[in-house]
Amino acid sequence: MNRLLTPWGETLDREHPLPEYPRPQMVRRSYLNLNGTWTYTVEDGDEYSRRRTGAITVPFSPECLLSGCDFQLRSGETLWYERSFTLRSGFRRDRVLLHFGAVDQSCTVRVNDVPVGGHEGGYLPFTLDITDALRDGENRLTVAVRDVTNGGEHAYGKQKYDRGGIWYTATSGIWQTVWLESVPANYIKKMRLTPDFDNRCLRWKIEAGDASGAHITVYMDGRVIAEDESGCCPIPADCFRPWTPEDPFLYTLEITLGEDRVESYFGMRKFSTVDYKGHRVFALNNEPYFQSGLLDQGYWSDGLYTPPSDEAMLHDLRTAKAMGFNMLRKHIKIEPERWYWHCDRLGILVWQDAPSGGDPFLPLYTQYLPFIGVRVKDAPSRKLGRADEKGRARFERDLEEMIDHLYNCVSLCLWVPFNEGWGQFDANRIAEKVKALDPTRPVDHASGWHDQGGGDVQSRHVYYKPVRLKNDGRRVLALTEFGGYSLPVPGHCAEEKSFGYRAYQSAEEWMDAVEKLYREQVIPHVEKEGLSAAVYTQVSDVEEEVNGLMTFDRRVTKLDPARMAAINDALRFSK
Q1: Domain boundary among 142, 161, 183
Q2: For a Cys-Cys bond, which of 85, 416, 460, 493 suits 353, CB 3.0-4.6 Å?
Q3: pLDDT number for residue 49
């Protein structure tokens, strides 16, 4: 693979990478970032592996350029991390919490050789109370990580050891920020914020050892507009300002519980479906709203799973906005929490996929039959990689945790539990489960193919052939993946081999083809069939895939943003 640095990776501060506060929806003044240089050792009983040791830049996985390591952790190996830290004067209150944004895939943690806990699963944050293991002065933190890709009970998304085509380099280890905070004995562990758009109030609740006495204060442009202790905080009529991608207004808030205080935010918006000229369509704040988006893999040429900086994330989002897109489909990955905050404040709708997993899928059912229009039933079986009962149970637990974790995200407007049959099972039941966990958002139960007739969305992926859609008359019709036209840019390709769904060598020819695809095959379906969303593949090139609107290193934008914005301006519902 060619070594491609992004502009932000080129200037990375290895001692202080990603220093920003990692949890914008639940901010405390107590904060100690542990990113930076750690030591590592890899062990598996093999003589060579036991001697593999050195320095690693956390939170970048060892497989990526920015980690400073460049090795692949394999099944059966253990990656040991170690670093020391000293709590500054006045930091410690009653309890000290150690937070990990994400560790791929399973880990155990020790502080001063005392076991303090661990975690299973590579995509979700976790917190450990390390108070009783701390000592005065310097403390030693040790993390042992193991990772199994291409199978097993845990989700692995688009990671593969034998990467190529639509499958990418497997990552492992710590890949999101590690940090400490100190809290009183009775503290706010979680909060749930539900904007009730129709009744113009914010419904809220917290989780704590003793939640009695919790108080919320809501601010608009820095001034107090409401306070509440009941769990339902009305928004005054003269202060009611709906959130939209065009006007992404956010209220700020403060919740206090005894000696604990957290700051957060919310937006007043509603996601639903409504009737539009005889078709069900997506609605925002009770009005039909066309969602034009991009497939977003969340991979970086130098950081792989981890963005090289906060500004790098902002670059992708601002570029998409400048092109006229109002939505991103976060594909088979969960991002750091700051990514969602940026979407909230910039005004970009988010479709959230659940990371896929299961045993290897049979290509007949996920790669061949769908392209000739054959749909299969999704009872648990080997054909879609879901014969293992333990793996299915793990998927459902992860799904519950993902929904709980991202519930407060203002911009998140759709859940996608399954994609193209990868690890799919019981999709109708799973869709009902998602709706029960979160009745405020629609669900695309089976994105692409193997539609079981459930959920809120009739979801179609169209590659290699013309876009022809027919509304089933019951659900929202959405073109949830299409396009993927490839255009290699010399000097900015990670691989000599390239992959895409239709190849071009000239930027002008490529751009003309993209515009023709939209204007002749996509836009007409809005009025004709009630098409409600379109997701073009994709934000950027990724390894062999050169079908992005930007190169993998984000140094070249392949098209004219103004021309793309004009195309997107035609993708709307008429009044």
Answers
A1: 183
A2: 416
A3: 60
